[in-house]
């Protein structure tokens, strides 16, 4: 394995050692602030979208008619069964919610990656890095790579 300066290193421990020696201990935490800042919105968007989709389906006319037909056929439904989505709908709603969450917080992930790639000589904070990204590529630069990330997120959910 070759370290960023071209020196050969011995695996992960060697890279850690190299980073601490050349950039200091806190270089191991590059990009931590944007990662932490994206956690709460990510969860909020995911569970918010999932809950909206689930609630909309459970209160839909299609669902109400289905429950009514099952009761007329003499099938007894427990309360929990009336709140179930089914496996496929749960997976689909999870994938949609995951994609919405990813799209919402993706700009913070772009900033985090840029922070991690910085060398000590040109080190900037998260806000300055974000401004630099927008200056160089416009607002779309904060979404660079979003499509593959959404596809990956959708496949993980399914």
Automatic annotation (TrEMBL):
Pfam family, one: Mito_carr
Each Solcar repeat, start to end: 1-56, 85-158
Protein keywords: Membrane, Repeat, Transmembrane, Transport
Keyword Transport: yes
Predominant location: membrane
Topology within the bilayer: Multi-pass membrane protein
Name under which the protein is recorded: Uncharacterized protein
């Amino acid at each position: 394995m070759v370290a960023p300066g071209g020196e050969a290193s011995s695996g992960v421990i060697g890279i850690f050692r190299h980073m601490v020696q050349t950039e200091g201990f806190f270089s191991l935490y590059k990009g931590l602030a944007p990662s932490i800042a994206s956690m709460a919105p990510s969860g909020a968007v995911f569970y918010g979208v999932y809950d909206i989709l689930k609630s909309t389906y459970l209160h839909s006319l299609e669902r109400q008619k289905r429950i009514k037909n099952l009761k007329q056929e003499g099938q007894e439904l427990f309360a929990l069964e009336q709140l179930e989505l089914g496996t496929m709908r749960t997976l689909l709603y999870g994938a949609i919610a995951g994609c919405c969450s990813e799209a919402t917080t993706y700009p913070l992930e772009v900033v985090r990656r840029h922070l991690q790639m910085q060398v000590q000589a040109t080190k900037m904070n998260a806000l300055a890095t974000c401004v630099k990204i927008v200056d160089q590529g416009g607002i779309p630069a904060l979404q660079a790579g979003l499509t593959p990330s959404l596809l990956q997120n959708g496949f993980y959910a399914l």
